[in-house]
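Lab notebook, design round three. We kept the backbone fixed and only want residue identities now. Task for the bench partner: fill in a sequence for the structure below.
Input structure tokens:
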């Protein structure tokens, strides 16, 4: 993906999860940096220590970029508007899909009858599954192919509903954001569906009246579409969203939230390195073996093991021996690595391309995450740990290694003596990992640090190894051109100051070992 032109936060509706956005994701990713969340109180299987609305809104803001456009479907649209009122400096614009500022009818507003909503809430308190099935039937009512749409909608869910989704109904009953709609200063776009039977047909006129004096507000209707609009009208939504943002000068080059690493470059670099990677991966093997030994002290009864950042699949046989009855999932950001691993290990497991900060896995679907020297490429640890909490079953573990900021300090110092550019990748420190995990109440994290050192006769040997591994500089702050011969010579000369008495050049690696427990 090229430099994103906007940050988008996508908020799903009640009884759904972030998978409802998948048809839109492929259309938005070429120009947007996406934050997708499974929202407590709305998403089946997503527990929260404090499911109150204020706490959920605060958690969304904690996980979201400093500034973003918010796109919310159904109840997610109400949450987006509530966030705009709560933190207007963080919300650049709001787009809602099939959403109303007030879900319940009132003397001056169209909506669901209060008695019907109370009955629905009472059913949910006794039997959440029955309530959700009834809600699904209302969502697809009016669709041209309701049975097919119902199957698609229910296929986006990975967990059975329980009492964890009841708070969302309380929010639907209580939220009345009409004042926030009419007083909002940021641009707002409200998309309704022509065939929506969950929301009244008169809502379009009611919104136009409510927003008549709000200059930056717009409404539009998606033709031939029912309530689950993200599953039916991805192309139309993407086009309308893009045009809306262009109109308000909100499609621009924006810096990614804390993104000092270009993920596209990371993926391409490791893809190119796949065939030769294992020939120079001694450090990776040593660290991985040490991480495997950390499993000895854990009571892990694994049915599903995720090898996160699986690379060439080197650890698949070892994990298979340790957990012979478990299903193995190898996942890597680099398509070339996944293709190579699949070719080497065949049907020994399932191989997926994916991002650790947005795993393409169901909630509570994994017992053990094993990740060796991969997580250093993640620059938003708060999303990473939120994903661990989502995909790990209660009692599950994640064991991982990552690189700390003191990694390759000799090479960094040598380059600093040669020019002003950043030539060595930057990695997150221990305290930032601890702080990010502390914000996810379902997780317990323990960390330790171990120093490793590789030794080389020439600087060129180190540079060749890094390039062969695909681990050379992918920082977005690197020089945009080729490094000059003079700068390279100056760097190699400066590196000579590190040569030891035995004639070797050291390369230090700060390796962080972590164990995450899902409570």
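Proposed sequence:
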């Amino acid at each position: 993906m090229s430099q994103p032109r906007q940050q988008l936060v996508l908020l799903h509706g009640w009884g759904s999860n972030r998978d409802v956005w998948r048809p839109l994701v492929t259309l938005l990713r070429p120009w947007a940096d996406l934050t997708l969340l499974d929202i407590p109180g709305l998403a089946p299987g997503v527990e929260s220590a404090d499911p109150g609305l204020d706490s959920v809104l605060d958690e969304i803001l904690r996980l979201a970029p400093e500034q973003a456009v918010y796109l919310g479907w159904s109840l997610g649209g109400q949450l987006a508007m509530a966030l705009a009122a709560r933190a207007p400096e963080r919300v650049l614009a709001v787009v809602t899909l099939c959403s109303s500022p007030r879900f319940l009818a009132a003397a001056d507003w169209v909506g669901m009858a209060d008695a019907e909503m109370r009955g629905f809430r009472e059913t949910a308190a006794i039997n959440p599954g029955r309530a959700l099935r009834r809600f699904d039937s209302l969502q697809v009512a009016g669709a041209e192919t309701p049975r097919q749409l119902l199957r698609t909608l229910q296929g986006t869910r990975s967990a059975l509903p329980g009492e964890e989704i009841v708070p969302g109904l309380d929010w639907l009953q209580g939220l009345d954001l009409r004042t926030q709609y009419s007083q909002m200063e940021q641009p707002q776009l409200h998309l309704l569906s022509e065939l929506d039977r969950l929301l009244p047909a008169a809502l379009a006129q009611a919104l136009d009246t409510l927003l008549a004096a709000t200059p930056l507000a717009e409404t539009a209707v998606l033709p031939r579409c029912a309530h689950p609009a993200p599953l039916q009208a991805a192309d139309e939504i993407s086009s309308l969203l893009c045009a809306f943002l262009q109109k308000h000068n909100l499609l621009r080059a924006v810096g990614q939230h804390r993104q000092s690493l270009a993920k596209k470059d990371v993926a391409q670099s490791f893809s190119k390195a796949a065939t030769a990677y294992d020939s120079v991966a001694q450090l990776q093997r040593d660290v991985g073996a040490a991480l495997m030994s950390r499993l000895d002290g854990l009571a892990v009864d694994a049915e599903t093991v995720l090898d996160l950042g699986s690379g060439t699949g080197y650890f698949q046989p070892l994990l298979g021996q340790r957990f012979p009855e478990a299903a193995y999932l190898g996942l890597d950001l680099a398509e070339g690595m996944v293709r190579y691993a699949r070719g080497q290990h065949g049907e020994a497991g399932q191989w997926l391309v994916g991002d650790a900060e947005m795993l393409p896995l169901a909630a509570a679907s994994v017992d053990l995450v094993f990740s060796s020297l991969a997580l250093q490429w993640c620059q938003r640890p708060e999303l990473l740990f939120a994903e661990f909490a989502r995909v790990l079953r209660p009692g599950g573990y994640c064991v991982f290694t990552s690189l700390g900021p003191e990694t390759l300090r000799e090479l960094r110092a040598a380059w600093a003596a040669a020019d002003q550019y950043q030539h060595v990748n930057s990695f997150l420190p221990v305290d930032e990992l601890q702080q990010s995990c502390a914000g996810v109440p379902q997780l317990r994290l323990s960390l330790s640090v171990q120093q490793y050192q590789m030794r080389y006769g020439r600087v060129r040997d180190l540079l060749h190894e890094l390039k062969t591994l695909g681990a050379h500089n992918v920082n977005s702050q690197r020089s945009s051109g080729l490094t000059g011969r003079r700068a390279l010579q100056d760097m190699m000369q400066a590196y000579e100051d590190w040569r030891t008495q035995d004639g070797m050049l050291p390369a230090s690696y700060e390796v962080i070992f972590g164990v995450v427990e899902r409570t």
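Keep this in mind before ordering anything: Confidence is low (pLDDT under 50) at residues 253-260, 473-482.
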